[in-house]
Amino acid sequence: MSIKNISSFWIKSLIVGVSLTFSSCEKILELDPKQSIDSSTALESQDGIESTLISVYSRLQNYQHYGRDMLALAEALSDNAIHTGNSSHLINEAANNRGSHFDLWQNCYYSINEINLVLEALENSAGQYAEGWANDIYGQAYFLRALLYHNLARAYAYDPTAIIQERNKGGVPLMLTAVNDLSKIGELKRASIEDTYKQIYADLEASIASFSGSDEQGLYPYKGNSYAAKALFSRVALYNGDWQKVVDMANDALSNKKSVFSTVVNYVDDWKKETHPESIFELRYNESENIGSDRSLRATYTSRAFYESENFTIQAVIAVNPDFYSLFSEDDVRKGVYRKGVGNNQSYWEVYKFISKNGVMNLDNVPVLRESELYLNRAEAYYHLNQLEDCRDDVNTIRNRAGLDDFETLDAALLDEVLLQRRLELAFEGHRWFDLKRRGEDIIKDSGNLTFDDYRLLAPIPDREVKIDGKLEQNYNY
């Protein structure tokens, strides 16, 4: 193809945007990620490699990724939330209008290319760097690439556990070679769903193996780490219906863990802390990285600027569906993270998991992987492995921490309870839409039901990419 026909995505991928170099890994989150240096310089030193990797973390913070959409859209598109009408933000997503969906394609592939450049630089370094440091960078890079590919697959492809074959266009393109000149640009053909998951598995296996020989110095849980790689593996395996792998990886992640499981007493207070004690991997925001009053999670979810505020602030567009709120038992401590709003939202229940808890308006760290998810992943897998008592033990771990009595039943109602506790525990953290999708379930909501066979279940691939490469198939009916 000619240079003028290459999409903007591929041209921008030729030069890596990375943050300024720094003196030690301890400063990884103290830099301005918006400044950049040329990739040819960045990847010639230890500082440059670290800076390139920081750029990946910075892209994950974007509002189209974990800064807002990976959490808020997973609620707006599904049945946990309703739109308040305070702003047009996310109103089309809440109504499941055509094309109003996740839009993280470009963000992810920019990041993947940066990771590939880091991996290439390490492979070409010929023992230039200390082994422990290099292994830590390898571990982070493979972990992040697996996370990115899984997020792409969740948004743009069917999950292995629930596929409509006649509409299946495959997984996502697997970009595994660093692109820093035109000769390395490949075609954008989508890999199969099976091959996409094989690659994610391979990256996670490589990450875990690398971390086993790494220094893993500092910054837990703000960077990729061995526990996070295993926790992510348990999630990926759940989407793949690989039940024993879910159990094995959850067991590994929970053994010798650094996270601290919340208790019935401190559950609500833990959500007010800058870093959540349960976090296994959490994105940390500095004041200069504040997403702001239009698109932050705080602004999206709450009418208050701070927990004790009584004045209405702009936006506050995604509120709690009363039908969802009614699922909580009266004595469930998790109800404490929901409050009635103020001003325009005084009649709405709002979620207070993100409420300027870093001390600055609209500034919140975002847990990506936390301990409670592991118990719920494992409980669901145990059920499918017919290890019902183990399943019940895990779901009761979550119930008891919520202040609820043990669940006693060992029949099909047990799976319903697992899924209910998953919905209640992980609400507004970016799971509901994807859980319904991977289970092939319909989305029932007042704004209009969305059956599993509806084409709007999958996000549209950006038109600019489809038009450039004829081998990249668009999702059905877009």
Number of helices: 18
Number-wise, the strands total: 6
Strand portion, in percent? under 5%
Radius of gyration, rounded? Answer: 22 Å
Structural class: mainly alpha
CA(first)-CA(last) distance = 25 Å
> Could you give a short account of the major beta sheet?
2 strands, antiparallel
N to C succession of SSEs: HHHHEHHHHHHHEHEHEEEHHHHH
Q: Strand order, main sheet: write it out.
A: 1-3
Coarse shape: globular
Detail the poorly predicted runs: 1-37
Q: On the 0-100 scale, what is the average pLDDT?
A: 91
- Helix percent reads 40-55%
Subcellular location: Cell outer membrane
Domain RagB/SusD: 339-478
Domain SusD-like N-terminal: 31-238
Pfam family, one: SusD_RagB
Give an overview of the whole structure.
InterPro entries: SusD-like_N, SusD_RagB_dom, TPR-like_helical_dom_sf. Belongs to the SusD family. With 478 residues, the chain is mostly helical. The protein is built from 18 helices and six strands. It has helices at residues 8-13, 39-42, 46-60, 69-76, 91-94, 105-123, 131-156, 193-211, 226-239, 243-254, 267-270, 297-301, 322-325, 371-384, 388-401, 413-425, 432-438, 463-468; strands at 81-83, 279-283, 318-320, 338-340, 349-351, 366-370. The strands form three sheets. A two-stranded antiparallel ribbon has the order 1-3. The protein has a two-stranded antiparallel sheet with strand order 2-6. Helix 7 (131-156) packs antiparallel against helix 8 and helix 15 (388-401) runs parallel beside helix 16 (413-425).
